Amino acid sequence: MMPGARPSRGPSRQALLAEVQALRQRVAALEQDKHDLEVMLEMAADHADDLSAVLQQERDDLEVMLEMTTDHADALEADLQNQAEALARRSQFIRQTFGRYVSEDVVAQLLDAPEGLELGGVKRTVTIVMSDVRGYTALAEGLEPQEVMTLLNRYLEAMVDVILTYRGTLIEMLGDGLLVLFGAPLSRDDDAERAVACALAMQVRLTDINALHRRAGLPDVEMGIGIHTGEVVVGHIGSQQRTKYGVVGSAVNLTGRIESYTTGGQILISPTTYTATAALLTVSQQMTVAPKGVAAPITLYAVSGIRGTHALCLPTPTETLVALPQALAVRYTVLEGKFAGSAMSTGNVVKLASRTAELHVDQPVAAFSNLKLYFLRPSGEVVPGEFFAKVVEARPEETSRVIVHFTSMPEAARRFLDTMWDKEGGDT
Amino acid sequence: MDIVHDDYQVHYDAATATVVCQGSFRLRGTEEYAPILQVLTAAADAKPTTLTLDLRPLRFLNSAGINTLAKFVLHARQYAATQVVIKGSHAVPWQEKSLLNFQRLLPRLHLEIE
Questions:
Q1: Does A363 reside within a domain?
Q2: Are residues A362 and A308 part of one domain?
């Protein structure tokens, strides 16, 4: 300040100091605010980082869950694919294995419930049906090969058709013989009933086949059927290269024996099958037999009809034995199994019908024996052409008299018989 | 706290802190799985030292089911003091492939596949 100048008017020093103090306070407050804001910013940033981390974690978790779900779905898909392929292979196997032996609806049933099908060996109570053409070998010998095949194929085609209709399982087809099961691979309550009905239907159908045969100039075919109900083991039998659905057990052997007692057109059933079906059956004959391998004799029942759902009956036999004014000499051998024994015996046919005869024999012959016979001319000369018969009646008290049923008769023997018949003036 | 259904069962044994799932889980979506998830999360909320989920008798589990189990593992993850054990079986095809993935959600999860 210039000397002598008058001091200018303005805030007092005190006021200025107060202002400075206020400004300082204001700066301090602003600095506090700034600091607070910086802290808040830091907090917000930290919080955002935390939130971001949580969100990132959740995002990661969700990604993992999505991958897990996709992996799991892939695993399930692969598993389902494997199961579908296994099922397809199993279906094909069932079709290939059973398609030839059982009807299509049984195959469908097996496919629907594969858990019910045990492919390994399994014990089952089944009803076994065995059929055989009587005198087939001799029949075949007298025919041309083409005729034999025509006859056999027509016969088998018709029989298989009947068997499948009655839901039987065709186990074996050996030449003209058939082995059929009712009760495996699927078991039903009416197995025994269907088996007997099937046998009746087979016999009925055979009469139709024979009508066809006669028109084609072919001989009649006769079939015997044996039926037995018992426990067997069924399952796949064979090697890896060749396997088939088969059956084993003594019940099968017994069925074969029962079948061997039958004559053409006859159905014989065992006591077990009879017990299971008796209320429905018409039985034409009962017989006691002692099959090989069976401890005690058993009763067999010749079935001629069934009532109920299936309602079938055999054509009634109309044969009546007619006495011959003059006995007809025969020479015969008792067959052991399918082979002729060596001892020849002689006898006389005293009564005759078209398929049965009363024979007087020199040596006693047991019931159900199979005989191979030749006719003898009055001169004693053997008539060419052997024929076969089964002894259907032989009484212990009258051993020299038996009733036989012709199971096979070649044309030559038949012609001879016809000439003798005409000569005797008989009528069938 | 059991769930009994014709196709599946969930049994929780509080004494052993074990949840056993058996049968086939074929339920649809989160809603149908809610009761099962509830049993599982409740078992975790009890904060046992070891919590066992036995899946050996569970033959089938659909995708919504694996999702439910994953949610359970995530829920149990919050309890650091609880050791989660999942039991599985080689005999059940899906378990061998899918159970390993749970360790991606909870690395300390103990898997016993026999």
A1: yes
A2: no
State the average pLDDT for chain A: 83
Return the CATH number at B85.
3.30.750.24
Q: Chain B partners of A79 at a C-beta cutoff of 8 Å?
A: 93-94
User: Within this chain, do residues A136 and A83 fall inside the same structural domain, yes or no?
Assistant: no
CB–CB of B74 and A61 under 8 A? yes
Taking the CA of residue B4 and the nearest CA in chain A, the distance in Å comes to 24
A194 and A295 in a single domain? The answer is yes
Q: Are B64 and B89 spatial neighbours (Cβ–Cβ below 8 Å)?
A: no
CB atoms within 10 A of CB B53: 25
| Model pLDDT, residue A426 | 42
**Are B63 and A61 inside 8 Å of each other by CB?**
no
Q: Average pLDDT for residues A266-272, to the nearest whole number? A: 95
Residue A38, domain extent:
21-98
pTM, full prediction = 0.58
Domain range holding B8? 3-113
Q: Which residue has the higher pLDDT, A124 or A110?
A: A124
Rg (CA), chain A: 48
B-chain residues near A75 (CB < 8 A): 93-94, 97-98
Domain count, chain B: 1
Phi, psi at residue A262, to the nearest 5°? -80, 155
If interface means Cβ-Cβ distance under 8 Å, which residues of chain B face chain A? 61-63, 66-67, 70-71, 74, 93-94, 97-98, 101-102, 104-105
Q: What does the radius of gyration of chain B's CA atoms come to, in whole angstroms?
A: 13
Mutate to test the interface with A, among B101, B102, B103 (most CBs of A within 10 A): B101
Say if residue A307 is in the same domain as residue A348: no
| Cα dist from A277 to A30, A178, A237, whole Å | 114, 22, 31
* CA closest to B105 among chain A residues: A61
Asked whether residue A370 falls in the same domain as residue A271, the answer is: no
Q: Which long-range contacts (CB under 8 A, 24 or more apart) does A287-290 make?
A: A287/A261, A287/A367, A289/A261, A289/A367, A289/A368
A108 shares a domain with A87: no
Boundary-marking domain end, from A295, A313, A331: A313
The residues, any chain, with a CB within 8 Å of residue A2's CB and separated by 6 or more, are: none
Residue B95 C-alpha, separation from nearest chain A C-alpha, in angstroms = 9
Report chain A residues touching chain B, CB-CB < 8 A.
Answer: 61, 64-65, 67-69, 71-73, 75-76, 79, 82
* A60: chain B residues, CB-CB within 8 Å: none
Model confidence pLDDT, tens digit, residues A311-327: 898 876 667 888 888 88
Sequence letter at residue B107: P
* Mean per-residue pLDDT, A284-297: 84
Q: Are residues A384 and A341 in the same domain?
A: yes
- Based on the fold, state whether residues A332 and A376 are members of the same structural domain: yes
Given A61, A64, A69, which is nearest B63 (Cβ)? A69
More confident residue, A292 or A319: A292
pLDDT in tens, chain B (114 residues): 799 999 999 999 999 999 999 999 999 888 999 999 999 999 999 999 999 999 999 998 998 999 999 999 999 999 999 999 999 999 888 888 789 889 989 999 999 999
Pair of tokens at residue A27? 């700066």
Q: Which tokens hold the place of A303?
A: 């079935």
